[in-house]
Write a structure and sequence with these properties.
- With 165 residues, the protein is an all-alpha fold.
- It starts with a helix and ends in a 9-residue tail after the last helix.
- The C terminus is likely disordered.
- Bound molecules: fe (ii) ion (FE2) (2 copies).
């Protein structure tokens, strides 16, 4: 196994996760500010899951005697319109699925089955995130932003249940 190759792939994923965490929290603040509470909560929940991904990647990097490069892959895009937000998130998850699938294959070829397994688990999670954002997008397309507003209204009724889909 070429440890340096695995560490480089894992660090590239760390950069992508950091970018996603920053972008999703930016979406969270802005959606919350606009009153779209359930969608805002969805972004916070998924950002926290991306932190879990970051941790799994970091633990593996340290096990392989590398260090974690805590630099996001790119800057936060200042998108605040709800449909554009969801479209951007879908593109990010789609990109994540593709790069993690490639990373899993590369780790397999590099005889690093454990890193391969981590990437495969992340692919499954990103697929699930994509699915959740896609559902939101379909509903916005079908019902318009009133769908999000209604969600917020319903979510506001029983205190504490908002955001627990
Ligand atoms: Fe992730
Ligand atoms: Fe994700």
């Amino acid at each position: 196994m070429d440890r340096a190759q695995s560490i480089a792939l894992l660090n590239q994923a760390v950069a992508d996760e950091l970018q996603a965490i920053h972008q999703y929290m930016y979406f969270h603040f802005h959606l919350d500010d606009q009153g779209f509470t359930p969608l805002a909560s969805l972004f916070k929940r998924i950002a926290i899951m991306e932190m879990g991904h970051l941790e799994a990647l970091a633990e593996r990097i340290l096990f392989l005697k590398g260090d974690v490069e805590m630099a996001p892959a790119g800057p936060v895009e200042k998108i605040t319109e709800p449909e554009a937000v969801v479209v951007k998130a879908m593109a990010m998850e789609d990109d994540g699925m593709r790069t993690y699938n490639e990373a899993a294959l590369a780790c397999g070829a590099n005889a690093d089955a454990v890193s391969k397994q981590i990437f495969e688990r992340l692919v499954a999670d990103e697929e699930n995130h994509f699915d959740q954002f896609e559902k939101q997008h379909e509903n916005i397309k079908r019902f318009g932003l009133s769908y999000l507003a209604l969600q917020s209204f319903q979510g506001a009724e029983p205190k504490g249940t908002a955001g627990s889909e």
